[in-house]
Amino acid sequence: MLVAALLNATASVLQRYATKAEPASAGFSWRMFTDLARRPVWFLGISTMIVGFLLHAVSISVSRIALVQPLLVTELPFTLLLASWVFGGRLPARDRWAIGLQSVGLAAFIATLAPSGGDAARVSLGAWALGIGVSAAAIAVLVVLGYRGKREHRAALLGIATGATFGLNSALIAGVGAAVARGGELLTTWQTYGVAVLGPISFFLLQNALQAGQLVASQPGFTLMNPLVSVVWGLAVFGEQGRGGWFVIGSVAGALCIVAGTILLARSDLLDPDATTGEGPATGRGSAERKGRTRRTGRKAT
């Protein structure tokens, strides 16, 4: 799962590198894909994401979803390190402390939760329908709010919706793995077709979230909602059980450290390529182009 998180981080940076040249849109854009298709770095990001998805699927299939999914939060530190290399910049002390805080929280959460039991293959069809219905309704609300909301909120809301969609997709993948492990056929398991339908939807949401704004806005949603939704599915639907008693305090404390570290990391300038490359609205490329036009025409730019 750690390798999958690294590949996901690589894919996010590569895709953001490709989409940051595209103008932000007011809503969903299909034309965006035809523009991105002409960028080799975008295809490299997609290929990396596919490999990460396959490793992710294997991890979920061989272990408990509530145990392995929290490891996905390491995607954000990996993203920061890669962004510092791709977009330029140095990892500041605050980010290093945030990475340490998130790492300690992750270790505490996994060690104290230690989920056991549960079997996705034994979940009733009614429980599956209820879980999918609740998850899909929440995702739909986030998408509508993102589509109709202000531009500065769009990337964040679509990022949360994308992370929730990834979490739901992970639950379906766990169902596929459990069914196959019990002797079922891949192509006769209904969850397989659920993954086939939800996969393109999550991909579409991901591209629009990346294109809607800076990675600093959308990345927290990718990072937190995916494992959060997966853990809820594992405990509430699949019947996995975490340790109780004093261990609950450790789990809660670990989760709070993860959230705090993620929020701090999400505010890093390294996730904003315009800030780190000097292409902001006041000093960046647009300003230089306006100055160039002023020199060529002899008129004041407005």
Can I get a quick summary?
With 302 residues, the protein is an all-alpha fold. 74% of the residues lie in helices and 0% in strands.
Molecular shape: globular
What fraction strand? under 5%
Order of helices and strands: HHHHHHHHHHHHH
Can you count the beta strands?
Answer: 0
SS-based structural class?
mainly alpha
Using only C-alpha atoms, the radius of gyration works out to: 21 Å
Distance between the termini: 51 Å
The stretches of 5 or more residues where confidence is low (pLDDT under 50) are 276-302
> Residue-averaged pLDDT, rounded?
77
**Count of helix runs:** 13
Description:
The chain is globular and about 50 Å long. It has 13 helices and no strands. With 302 residues, it is an all-alpha fold. The protein has a domain at 2-83 and 118-242. Helix 1 crosses helix 5. 74% of the residues lie in helices and 0% in strands.
Question: What's the SSE blueprint?
Answer:
Blueprint: H1 2-19, H2 31-36, H3 40-62, H4 65-68, H5 75-86, H6 93-113, H7 125-148, H8 151-181, H9 190-212, H10 215-236, H11 247-266, H12 273-277, H13 285-297
Helix pairs in contact: 1-3, 1-5, 3-8, 6-11, 7-8, 8-9, 8-10, 10-11
